[in-house]
Design goal:
single chain, two-stranded antiparallel ribbon
Length: 355
């Protein structure tokens, strides 16, 4: 796979947009224009989220949704908004943001815009563990834990098999694609091996759906997001340096392999926690970081924040379409795949890249 440099030289006009925050213990540079775009997208996200909760067989007005969310609505409205619709909306936001940041990390790490956790097999590892858990009738409440362990184990296997005195981005991609294909074959074998009534829930889970999201899911997503997001933003600075090449990175005295391992761990963690709770939702991690860079510029801490907000908005809109604007309600992953597959082919055509 041909490499694509995701960074580009920063000119004087771009430097002028940056603001430096410096204290006695902390110093960082932020792109004000990108943070402004992230803020505006966040406001759009809040509006779309509120609008999404007005939709459904029990229609609730826009302002009534706000009142019910803060505990000032009627009992019926509060029951529907706070117990049913708000957990699903918040799950979509956290999962979309997590997948977008995970994709941005992996694309920056291997310097290729066509890479994402679902392409190199990490989501497939989570799916294999979850399918095994379902068809063997294990405790349903521990399904997210099983999927999380599957994703982490797959990432570890890819890292170990890619190691040859260091990690080569192109070798990591090829090994990941190979392992993903192998895991897919294992999933197919299990689906064929077990009776249809047992594997039906596993097949539905594999489509990626936010149906049945609960406050327990939201809490788990929020904890993982709160822990991993600051680390992902901080690691964006060494990630930009790594895009200059391994020799330059070593020449600057940066611990290359330890930094790369840390980035892989954070990227896997973000992908794993999202996949564990909603199933494999494809193409979000591929499309959103690419769109964020097209709008906001080269990868940086500010662009990482913008990618997260854009990912949350994208998945929420996809979930609304899947629920309310199709002849039948579909899993969210079907909508993201319908949009993502043509986008992926467009990227292939645009970059004239072979996989």
């Amino acid at each position: 796979m041909d490499g694509m440099n995701l960074s580009q030289p920063v000119g004087p006009s771009q430097r002028a947009r940056h603001r430096v925050v410096r204290t006695r213990y902390f110093s960082a540079r932020f792109n004000g224009r990108v943070l402004l775009m992230a803020g505006l997208t966040l406001m759009l996200l809040a509006a779309v989220g509120t609008w999404a909760m007005t939709l459904g067989s029990y229609h609730i007005a826009f302002l009534d949704v706000v009142k019910a969310a803060i505990g000032d609505g009627t009992p019926d409205q509060e029951l529907i908004v706070r117990n049913l619709r708000l957990p699903r909306v918040m799950s979509a936001m956290f999962i979309g943001a997590s997948l977008a940041m995970s994709g941005a990390i992996f694309q920056g790490l291997v310097r290729n815009a066509l890479v994402s956790p679902d392409i190199i097999g990490i989501e497939t590892g989570a799916a294999l563990a979850a399918v095994f858990w379902i068809v063997t009738s294990q405790v349903q409440a521990l399904l997210p834990v099983a999927a999380f362990i599957g994703a982490i184990a797959t990432a570890t296997l890819i890292y170990v098999l890619s190691w040859k005195g260091g990690i080569s981005p192109s070798r990591l991609i090829l090994v990941g694609i190979g392992i993903g294909a192998t895991l897919n074959a294992a999933i197919t074998m299990m689906i064929v091996r077990f009776p249809i009534e047992i594997v039906r829930p596993a097949v539905v889970w594999q489509m990626g759906s936010l149906y049945g999201s609960t406050w327990g899911d939201v809490r788990m997503l929020a904890i993982g997001f709160a822990i991993l997001t600051p680390v992902a933003i901080v690691l964006t600075w060494p990630l930009r340096t790594m895009q200059l090449g391994d020799d330059v990175t070593r020449g600057l005295g940066m611990p290359l392999e330890r930094t790369r391992l840390g980035l892989i761990a954070v990227g896997c963690g973000l992908c794993a926690i999202a996949t564990a709770l909603a199933g494999p939702i494809g193409f979000v991690a591929l499309m959103v970081p690419h769109m964020a860079r097209m709008i906001a510029g080269p990868l940086s801490g500010s662009v990482m924040v913008f990618s997260a907000v854009l990912g949350a908005c994208f998945l929420l809109v996809a979930d609304v379409i899947a629920q309310h604007f199709l002849p039948v309600s579909l899993p969210t992953g079907v909508v993201t795949a319908a949009v993502g597959a043509p986008y992926f082919l467009l990227l292939l055509y645009r970059y004239n890249t072979r996989i």
